[in-house]
Amino acid sequence: MGQYLGYFYALLAAALFGISATLNKIVLVDVHPLVVAGLIYFSAGILLVLIRFLPAFKKISKKIQINTENKELNRTNWFYLIIIAVCGAVIAPFLFLHGLNISTAVNASLLLNAEVLFTVFIAFIFLKERANTKDYFAMIILFLAAIVVTTNLNLSEINFTGKLLGNLFIIGGTLFWALDNSLSKKLGIENDVVKVASFKSLIGGSIVILIAIILQIPFNITLHMIPYILFVGFFSIGLSIVLFLSSLRMIGLMKTAVIYSTSALFGALSAFIILGEPISAIQLIAGTVMIYAIYLMSRKIDKTLSLNFSFKKNRNNKRFIPKKNIKERLLSNKTIFDSIRKKKIK
Predict the structure, then answer these.
(1) Is the Cβ–Cβ distance between 206 and 39 less than 8 Å?
(2) Which of 342, 308, 313, 314 has its CA nearest to residue 328?
(3) Cα separation of 134 and 55, whole Å?
(4) Integer Cα distance of 299 and 288 in angstroms
């Protein structure tokens, strides 16, 4: 059950994060992106800290298998937490936004998928995560479908060489997000995921707000923007991080990162529903393929065929006999011999 829950949490985290892109467009009309990012992360941290004091928090978290063991964070954990916050909430967004100003929107949409490649590479090489052939096949399908959703196959508009510096900034941003994902696995496995998510959001948000203050960026926040900021902060950032960390514990970094790329699909769907932005039939088909790929990953292989059967040659008829059948025959022969010995003794 925990494994299937891991797939569901990764998909739900992607959906919540995907919606944030649409809601941020409403706020970003009059407010600087740095201010929005800082306030969203900071509000996420505050709200996550507050829900820990709810009377039913422990009971609910245990029921939905969210790790909330109240362990003290040691020096190493705090070091990782600061690195994660700086990588994921400061350096990565800065590089991405700077690259987006130089590059094109289509280039950025395509290159954002590099985060999945970097994360899978780190999980495979450094964290020694492995999957079976079925899972690798599903991951490739999901990744290719994500490219279709993000670019809508407008490949003629892609220009890597003309916008090289901007593209390099965007790729650099995805690399730091991948480092954030990889280091988050260690913290998520060992500690209370709600505590990790709250501190990560608070540290990252505080740093971004401080940068905005130093750069003298105006905080043009009006009352009608506050509900959007709080909703995105709690659900799209705070709860999304908690679900992402929980999924890491259940199904591993590699699968979680690939499934998380479906956030592009949910972003396109929410933009269509809320803002009336167009969505093509190609994107909808690619989105369906992404969901099918997740289903394919979540399916369990019948291990009775792969584990219980080891094939041996029979010298008489050159047939292949399953190892399971050999064991059964040996056990039955042993039973016969034991009964014959007992009769002889009598």
Answers:
(1) no
(2) 308
(3) 43
(4) 17
